[in-house]
């Protein structure tokens, strides 16, 4: 089951538009993930001087929390932060990142952070129609609803 859940995790994470990234025990901030399953990494475009960038400079730990009903993914992901390269920044650059930097990917404040997951607790749920069916069925049958797949993953 863990390999199926891990597969489901990476596939659904591709559809997540934003989550909350935290590092160094500071407040979490909304960030748009760029997944790279082959590299087992999640990339974030951030500003130089941000908490994520400072933690990445020292190879610090981070946490990425996801609650995305459209993707059917809820997860708490712990991992390590490192700085990314200019080439990778060019590769993952998109309209979401461009909205935050005046001079686009050439903005002197734009930088890339690599998040390498160590572990995660994951809930992969059904789509909203299936979920509503489960809720209705549970109320009629007096049984608990199925919340989908749940488990802990190690990467």
Please give the CATH architecture: Roll
**What structural category do the secondary elements indicate?**
alpha+beta
Mean pLDDT: 89
CA-CA gap between termini? 14 Å
Low-confidence stretches: none
The CATH homologous superfamily name equals Electron Transport, Fmn-binding Protein, Chain A
Name the shape in a single word.
elongated
How large is the radius of gyration? Answer: 17 Å
Largest sheet: 8 strands, antiparallel
Strand percentage, roughly?
35-45%
Q: Quickly count the helices.
A: 5
CATH topology: Pnp Oxidase, Chain A
Number of structural domains? 1
CATH class: Mainly Beta
Helix content: 25-40%
Order of helices and strands: HEEEEHEEHHEHE
| Number of E strands | 8
What does it look like?
The chain has helices at 2-13, 51-57, 86-92, 95-98, 128-141, and strands at 19-23, 29-31, 34-36, 41-47, 61-68, 73-83, 110-124, 149-154. The chain is elongated and about 60 Å long. It has a single domain (2-154), classed as Electron Transport, Fmn-binding Protein, Chain A (Pnp Oxidase, Chain A, Roll), CATH 2.30.110. The chain is of the alpha+beta class. The two termini are 14 Å apart. Strands 1, 2, 3, 4, 5, 6, 7 and 8 form an eight-stranded antiparallel sheet that branches. The chain is built from five helices and eight strands. Strand 5 and strand 6 form a beta hairpin. The mean pLDDT is 89.
């Amino acid at each position: 089951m863990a390999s199926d859940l891990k597969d489901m995790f990476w596939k659904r994470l591709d559809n997540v538009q934003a989550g909350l990234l935290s590092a160094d025990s500071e407040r979490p901030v909304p960030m748009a993930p760029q997944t790279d399953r082959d590299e087992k990494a999640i990339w974030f475009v951030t500003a130089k001087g941000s908490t994520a960038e400072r933690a990445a400079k020292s190879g610090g730990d981070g946490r990425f929390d996801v609650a995305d009903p459209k993707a059917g993914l809820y997860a708490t992901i712990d991992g390590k932060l490192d700085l990314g390269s200019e080439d990778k920044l060019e590769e993952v650059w998109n309209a979401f990142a461009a909205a935050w930097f005046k001079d686009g990917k050439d903005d002197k404040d734009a930088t890339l952070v690599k998040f390498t997951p160590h572990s995660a607790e994951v809930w992969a749920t059904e789509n909203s129609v299936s979920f509503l069916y489960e809720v209705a069925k549970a109320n009629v049958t007096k049984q608990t609803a199925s919340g989908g797949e749940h488990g802990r993953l190690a990467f």
